[in-house]
Amino acid sequence: MTDHDHDRTAAPMVDEITDFEVLEIALRELCIEKGIFTAEDHRRFTEFAEQIGPAPAARMVARAWLDPEYKKLVLTDALAASREVGVDWLQPTGFGTPSDFTALHVLEDTPTLHHVIVCTLCSCYPRPILGNSPEWYRTPNYRRRIVRWPRQVLAEFGLYLPEEVEIRVEDSNQKHRFMVMPVRPDDTEGWGEDQLAEIITRDCLIGVALPKAGVTTNVITKTRPAIHPVEH
After folding, report:
1. Whole-number Å distance between alpha carbons of 99 and 42
2. What residues act catalytically?
3. CA nearest 85: which of 107, 102, 67?
4. Cβ contacts of residue 208 below 8 Å, gap of 6+?
5. Organism's domain of life (predicted)?
6. Of 129, 122, 35, whose CA–CA distance to 81 is shortest?
7. 124 assigned to a ligand binding site
8. What are the domain boundaries of the chain?
9. Mind listing the pLDDT tens digit for each residue in 162-199?
């Protein structure tokens, strides 16, 4: 066996941190120094936030599809409906200051109306019930384009809607969050709540996909490098 000089030649995973990350570090360290919360509190909340997923939101929609009375609650008082599926926006962690307490509205799709959510200013998102937002949701590319060319952007996700379907883009903000209640697929008659919840993915709840029987994962879009034609 020959000895090799294992020089590190690979570039680091992250060359530099962003301005937002610098701000987060400075604010976090200041809060710990001032006794607003401890480093242990921060660790516990971070671990809690990372494990939140879209399952409660999917359960909410599935139950609304089956129960007309619950559907009324979802559309009129989404925070109360959230508690019915185990999410209390007033105290989501159970051990600290409420996170993302805000007005939550569920947008009901119809055969002629389709909703999609965005936050054009930053990346406001109903995290207590949907978990952390996907990376593409936070990109300027999505935020700028979905409000101008929603039909074309949805097509890039593989969602092609007929021209007669109106697309309505709802813009979240600091204290106002949205999620989508998609139309129930026709081929799900006789399904129970558990089976329905499986096909209501995060992307369906954002509005960039539709629930389909047999599809239980989020859309994976192909990433293509930008091509700049060269003039000869």
Report:
1. 12
2. 119, 122-124
3. 67
4. 116, 154, 157, 159, 219
5. Bacteria
6. 129
7. yes
8. 19-49, 54-206
9. 999 999 999 998 788 999 999 999 999 999 999 999 99
Would the annotation count 172 as a binding residue?
no
Model confidence over 67-110: pLDDT tens digits?
A: 999 999 999 999 999 999 988 877 766 555 555 567 899 999 99
Query: CB neighbours of 56 closer than 8 A, spacing ≥ 6?
Result: 82, 85, 86, 87, 129
Q: Which helix (H) or strand (E) holds 37?
A: none
Residue 160 to residue 153: CA distance in whole angstroms: 10
- Residue 222 has a pLDDT of 56
For the domain with range 54-206, which CATH number is right: 3.90.330.10, 2.60.40.60, 3.40.50.880, 3.40.50.970? 3.90.330.10
CA distance 22 to 13: 17
Q: Would you state the structure tokens that stand for residue 160, as one six-digit string?
A: 């092609």
> Which of the residue ranges 49-63, 154-168, 185-199 would you say has the lowest mean pLDDT?
49-63
Biggest CA pair distance of the chain: 73
pLDDT score of 218? 82
Partners of residue 118 on adjacent β-strands: 171
CA distance 100 to 175: 8
Question: Does 123 appear as a known binding residue?
Answer: yes
Average pLDDT for the chain: 84
